[in-house]
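User: Please fill in residues for this 457-position structure.
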């Protein structure tokens, strides 16, 4: 009867050990960050939060360091120095507690004034190198106080205390001096704290500059969004206002017979109502975009949006005797921002009207594939040459006059491309001079929403 000796496998493998180390490290970093951020809350001014973190960062190492020396001095029979070290430990703990309860001014008084008095006394009494901790207190005072009188007066007091300790005769002392190696260790630790404070100040300055740069970029983005909103407002209001101006001019010149006044009044009322609806939409959108234009996609049917576009340009279509051939199936749905898609379609249809000859036709078609929907707006008007096509979606374009003298700003197509890209879509154009232009918009296919009003053509 034989047996096989299996190789020994340790209970804790190498990967498990690495995972344990990583977990311990993450927990340590988590607890460290929690302590350093004691008293810091989101509504706190940026610079004040960094000053609070600086005090926490300086108070935290004092707790184990001073508590260790408190035990050591008590063991060596230096009971007064042990009590002073314990007082420093309690002061550091008090700073964290005061920050927790948001008593920031009290925390600064405890850390700065109490510590300065304590270090001055221990430096004079024991000659233990505590005077170098006064330099830390001076640096911290300069970093956390903006008042020049506080910084100046307290700076003079600390410098005077430092010089008194340094130049006081070493042969005269009130208590037996601590060992030389203890003095060296205190000086080394105090200078290390000084390096930490200055390094953190440098980090704060760098972080502050980055925060300012982020705010500057955010302001630039908001200014660009504001320009876009102004362009949308101008584009959406210009057409109804032009119609109103034309009707009122005809009224003033008496070109409407009395029998046609009722019909004209109905048209005028319809245009005023349309303008009011446009203003409501712009107000709603501008309120939503107070912090910048945001894309909020959802599922919606395309046909009702196209109906709104046609209604918007109804009178211009009649004035230019344009035939609108719209082939949009009622079951086509998009997943995009409805308002932004509406802006794109209004711009494209407006351009088609602008550059169409009187009596011609504009064709709008929509086709869907498994994942996308293509919407094409085709006119048979003036068209564009290759040079115009190259600059069409840039700020270098030179807007041309329409067939009836209409003039654009050139911002509409830039907005169309940007809104299309924000909705994970694209826009393209094909044009031939004097033969017409076709703009094609690709957007993500959506699901047909429930209780969504539909339209048919």
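Assistant: Residues filled in for all 457 positions:
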């Amino acid at each position: 009867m034989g047996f096989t000796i299996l190789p020994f496998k340790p209970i804790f493998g190498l990967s498990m050990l690495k995972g344990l180390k990583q977990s311990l490290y993450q927990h340590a970093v988590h607890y460290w960050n929690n302590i350093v951020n004691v008293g810091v809350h989101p509504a706190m001014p940026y610079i004040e939060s960094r000053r609070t973190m600086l005090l926490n960062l300086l108070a935290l190492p004092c707790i184990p360091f001073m508590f260790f020396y408190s035990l050591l001095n008590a063991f060596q029979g230096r009971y007064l120095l042990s009590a002073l070290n314990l007082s420093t430990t309690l002061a550091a703990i008090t700073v964290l507690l005061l920050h927790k309860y948001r008593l920031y001014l009290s925390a600064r008084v405890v850390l700065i004034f109490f510590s300065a008095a304590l270090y001055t006394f221990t430096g004079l009494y024991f000659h233990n190198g505590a005077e170098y901790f006064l330099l830390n207190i001076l640096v911290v005072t300069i970093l956390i106080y903006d008042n020049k009188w506080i910084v100046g007066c307290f700076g003079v007091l600390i410098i005077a205390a430092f010089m008194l300790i340094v130049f006081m005769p070493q042969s005269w002392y009130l208590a037996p001096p601590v060992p030389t190696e203890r003095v060296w260790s205190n000086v080394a630790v105090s200078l290390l704290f000084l390096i930490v404070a200055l390094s953190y100040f440098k980090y704060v300055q760098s972080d502050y500059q980055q925060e300012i740069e982020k705010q500057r970029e955010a302001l630039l983005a908001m200014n660009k969004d504001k320009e876009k909103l102004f362009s949308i407002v101008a584009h959406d209001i210009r057409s109804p206002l032009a119609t109103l101006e034309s009707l009122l001019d005809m009224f003033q010149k008496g070109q409407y017979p009395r029998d046609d006044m009722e019909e004209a009044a109905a048209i005028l009322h319809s245009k005023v109502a349309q303008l009011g609806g446009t203003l409501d939409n712009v107000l709603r959108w501008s309120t939503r975009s107070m912090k910048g234009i945001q894309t909020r996609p959802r599922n919606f049917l395309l046909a009702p949006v196209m109906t709104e576009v046609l209604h918007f340009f109804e009178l211009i279509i009649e004035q230019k005797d344009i035939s609108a051939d719209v082939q949009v199936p009622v079951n086509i749905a998009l997943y995009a921002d409805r308002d932004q898609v509406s802006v794109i379609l209004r711009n494209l249809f407006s351009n088609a009207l602008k550059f169409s000859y009187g009596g011609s036709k504009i064709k709008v078609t929509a086709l869907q594939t498994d994942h996308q929907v293509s919407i094409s707006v085709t006119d048979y008007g003036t068209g564009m040459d290759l040079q115009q096509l190259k600059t069409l979606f840039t700020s270098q374009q030179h807007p041309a006059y329409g067939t009836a003298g209409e003039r654009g700003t050139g911002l509409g197509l830039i907005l169309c491309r940007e809104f299309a890209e924000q909705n994970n879509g694209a826009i393209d154009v094909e044009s031939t001079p004097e033969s017409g232009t076709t703009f094609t918009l690709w957007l993500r296919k959506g699901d047909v929403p429930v209780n969504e009003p539909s339209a048919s053509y």
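For context: The beta strands are 298-301, 323-327, 333-336, 361-368, 372-379, 426-432, 436-444.
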